[in-house]
Amino acid sequence: MASVSKYVRNQQRQKLVKEKEHLLKDSKKKLANACKRSQYIKIIENINNKLKATNLSADQIKNLKHELNIYEKKVNEIPELSYSEIWNLQFEMNKIGKELCRTRVRNRCSIPTCARPRGILTRFGLCRNHVREFACKGELPGNIYKVSW
Q1: How far is CA 38 from CA 43, 68, 86, 117, 137, in A?
Q2: Between 62 and 20, the higher pLDDT residue
Q3: Given 19, 57, 61, 95, which residue has the most CB atoms within 10 angstroms?
Q4: Predicted TM-score of the model (pTM)
Q5: How far apart are CA 26 and CA 18, in angstroms?
Q6: Strands (E), the chain
Q7: Which domains does the chain have, with CATH numbers?
Q8: Which residue spans within 34-141 are E strands per DSSP?
Q9: What is the helix, strand, coil percentage profile of the chain, to 5?
Q10: pLDDT per residue over 85-106, tens digit each?
Q11: Closest alpha carbon to 26 in 83, 82, 84, 89
Q12: What is the predicted pLDDT for the residue at 146?
């Protein structure tokens, strides 16, 4: 009985993961961009501080200005998020919960009466015991059968 309920729970979890996956991707991407933007701004500040130094050659100044232009373009490409928007994104991700993480979805034998969590052959979605059983009967696709000599 307990194994059947685990199987059903696992199937429900897989459906939820598929439904909510796009929400996770979007919010993760937005948060990653916000982090990149803040890193680029710090790099721009460091370059500006280096440019204020008086003992730089003309080539060094030219290279620093070139780097500055590159990072300013990158910053302008990424939309600015306010702290409230970042908090909302994090809140959404937390609301989705840990239950929907792909790593928590357990591979189980696709036969509901078995639902064995270990020894799964992903090609068939069956545990090793059922693969052996069906191979003996010749019921697996692709001419897979138990060899005996």
Answers
A1: 9, 15, 12, 44, 62
A2: 62
A3: 61
A4: 0.50
A5: 14
A6: 120-121, 126-127
A7: 2-106 (no CATH), 107-149 (4.10.830.10)
A8: 120-121, 126-127
A9: 70, 5, 30
A10: 888 877 777 776 666 666 666 7
A11: 89
A12: 73
